[in-house]
Design brief:
The complex is a heterodimer of chains A (270) and B (323).
Chain A lengths: L1 H14 L3 H28 L8 H13 L10 H9 L12 H12 L2 H21 L11 H32 L5 H12 L14 H6 L7 H8 L4 H36 L2
Chain B lengths: L2 E14 L3 H10 L2 E15 L4 E5 L6 H8 L7 E6 L8 H6 L1 E5 L11 H12 L3 H14 L15 H11 L7 E5 L7 H18 L2 E5 L3 H7 L2 E6 L2 E7 H8 L3 E7 L11 E7 L2 E6 L6 H11 L2 E7 L3 H10 L1
Parallel strand pairs in B: 3-7, 3-8, 5-6, 6-7
Antiparallel strand pairs in B: 1-2, 1-4, 8-9, 10-12, 10-13, 11-12
The chains are: A mainly alpha (270), B alpha/beta (323).
């Protein structure tokens, strides 16, 4: 376990160095957050029927989505992809450590460090600055301490799902070799079905069960709704179960295909 | 014997398609495969503490052998035992005891400072903290790493990176070290540093080293024993001296004369080259002894300087490959 912990720590530290990217990303995400809140406010003002999500909830949902944008498994780990492309990946087999575990550990760091860098200033902006300037436009604090604690749990669960999915995308590189196929498709899915374009509760009722069943819902949608109080504490428990199930399923798939890909490499040569 | 290789064979299936558009279309429907034997029955064994050069032309099977020994490749047939283990079957236990350096690749993390890569490897190999500290200090000193410890790997020169890679392969104090072209692309100073280090490692710590290289100076500087592989088969295995003798007994006499050297020569020797006042003669010591040849040359010409040497090892190896 120490080996994996060391990998997470090293990768985390390395990723924290990209501060300029974080600053640039922060401004972009604030801009798009304002645009999305503006659009949703217009929709809500013109709505003739009751929406399945209150306006404060949906506003908070947008800001949480903007703050945790990089939690989305939007592409493969480029270092790993490079290793696979050049064949250096076999080098990893000369280490007494499980390769999927290494990739998962790297992904855990990759899905947290950039998010933390952006999340903290984003929370300051959306929770403190924005409500003071434009009341009703910002992110309201969670309804209770319990909801906040549960959100932390769901955030951790979301990191696990996202990292397991990233590791699986890495594995897919063993067949496709480029980041243009599977990752781009997945990024589109994750953005759309993760609630980043339209909050999932605002989708048509007949589509919701399918969207909620997908792993993407567990990354941004569910945790954000726990935070804003749109989901109850009891429902939050189900979110954790959903995330755990998907983490295990994606991990099992990743391990299975990695073993197959490696067998091809070690039997067939790179 | 620490390493035993018996009748090792490895065949790859290579997809083939005929040239042109028609070939490309046909390739979509049915792939033709061709079997390529990278190793065709390789046998050798190594005792602990040996330093062996493993050489051969490109595509001879050097890297394939190293990959099998390192537990990366599963062979098609044959028996391999390294320190009592079968590499590809007991991979995790096996790799704890070996170090591997592929000169063309790096095992360091691109965006991490060298020192952090080493530290991470300590955790991966579960080296106790105090043993790691002494080991690290020693490696830093021997490989002159102090100045580059804090530098991210992507900013290192090739020579610096290779020294760092060597350190990375040794944090867990392996008994066996596989070096696949460790001096490739290095400048003369870096090459000397790598050679000196490998030699010390072998002499002082008794680490068994298998070294593949195209640089014959590596072999001359380091290896008592040389295994030559060509076409997936071992064509020679023995000391450097024995290897020379199997190929040629030839020796070279280089003579500097005062004045024109175009007349210098002998019936029992062939002229290899002639440049200004210098002549190089090749001769077989069984036909004419060095002393006799020198006497003949000095009696006929005003010799300023002369020396006898073995043909360069490149010449010897090239002749083996050509056979």
């Amino acid at each position: 376990m120490m080996g994996y912990a060391a990998i997470i720590a090293a990768r985390f530290k390395a990723l924290l160095q990209y501060r300029a990217a974080a600053l640039g990303g922060l401004f972009t995400q604030i801009f798009f957050g304002l645009v999305r809140v503006m659009i949703l406010r217009a929709f809500y003002a013109a709505a003739t029927t009751a929406a399945p999500m209150s306006l404060p909830s949906v506003t908070g949902y947008v800001w949480l989505g903007q703050a945790m944008l990089l939690l989305i498994p939007w592409r493969e780990d480029t270092d790993v992809a490079e290793q696979i492309r050049t064949g250096t990946v076999v080098y990893e087999l000369t280490k007494p450590i499980d390769l999927w575990g290494v990739w998962f550990a790297r992904s855990l760091a990759w899905r947290t460090a950039p998010v933390f860098l952006r999340m903290i200033p984003m929370f300051v902006f959306a929770m403190l600055i924005l409500p003071a300037v434009a009341p009703g436009w910002g992110l309201a604090p969670p309804p209770s301490a319990a909801a906040f604690a549960l959100w932390i749990g769901c955030f951790a669960g979301a990191v696990m799902v996202s990292a397991a999915l990233t590791a699986l995308i890495n594995v897919s590189m063993m067949w496709t070799l480029t980041g243009e196929g599977v990752p781009m498709l997945l990024a589109a899915f994750a953005t759309m079905f993760g609630g980043l374009v339209i909050p999932l509760p605002l989708f048509p009722d007949w589509l919701k069960p399918a969207l909620y069943a997908l792993p993407f819902a567990g990354i941004l949608d569910f945790p954000s709704r726990v935070f804003t109080g749109n989901l109850s504490i009891a429902e939050g428990g189900l979110v954790l179960a959903h995330q755990l199930a998907w983490t295990l399923a994606l991990a099992a798939a990743g391990r299975y295909f990695l073993a197959r890909g490696l067998r091809r490499l070690v039997v067939q040569g790179g | 014997m620490q390493i035993v290789v018996e009748d090792l064979a490895k065949t790859f299936r290579v997809a083939e398609r005929t040239a042109g558009l028609a070939g490309a279309v046909r390739g979509l429907v049915r792939r033709k495969h061709r079997e390529v034997a990278a190793l065709a029955g390789v046998s050798f064994s190594l005792a602990a503490g040996e330093l062996v050069g493993y050489i051969g032309p490109n595509g001879a099977g050097k890297s394939t052998t190293i990959k099998v020994l390192a537990g990366i490749l599963v062979p098609s047939s044959g028996r391999v035992e390294v320190a009592g283990r079968v590499p590809w079957k007991q991979r995790i236990e096996h790799v704890r005891r070996i170090g591997v350096v592929f000169g063309q690749r790096t095992q360091l993390w691109w965006d991490l400072p060298v020192v952090e890569s080493l530290d991470m490897l300590r955790h991966i190999y579960k080296v106790p903290a105090d043993r790691f500290r002494t080991q690290r200090e020693e490696l830093i000193e021997l490989l002159d790493l102090a100045g580059i410890l804090a530098t991210p790997v992507r900013q290192l020169s090739l020579g610096q990176r290779m020294r760092a890679d060597l350190a990375a392969s040794l944090v867990h104090a392996p008994e066996i070290l596989f070096l696949d072209e460790p001096t490739i692309g290095l400048d003369a100073v870096s090459k000397l540093a790598v050679r000196a280090f490998v030699k010390r490692l072998n002499r002082e710590r008794g680490v068994t080293v298998i070294l593949t290289t195209h640089d014959m100076d590596d072999i001359e500087a380091l290896c008592d024993r040389v295994i030559v592989i060509d076409g997936g088969k071992i064509v020679s295995d023995g000391t450097l001296g024995a290897l020379r003798n199997t190929v040629t007994r030839e020796r070279w006499l280089t003579v500097d004369v005062a004045g024109d050297a175009s007349e210098v020569g002998d019936a029992d020797a062939t002229v290899i080259r002639r440049e200004g006042e210098r002549v190089c003669l090749a001769f077989d010591p069984e036909v004419v002894s060095p002393a006799e040849l020198i006497r003949r040359v000095t009696s006929r010409h005003a010799v300023r300087d002369l020396f006898v040497e073995n043909p360069p090892i490149e010449t010897v190896i090239a002749r083996i490959y050509q056979r």
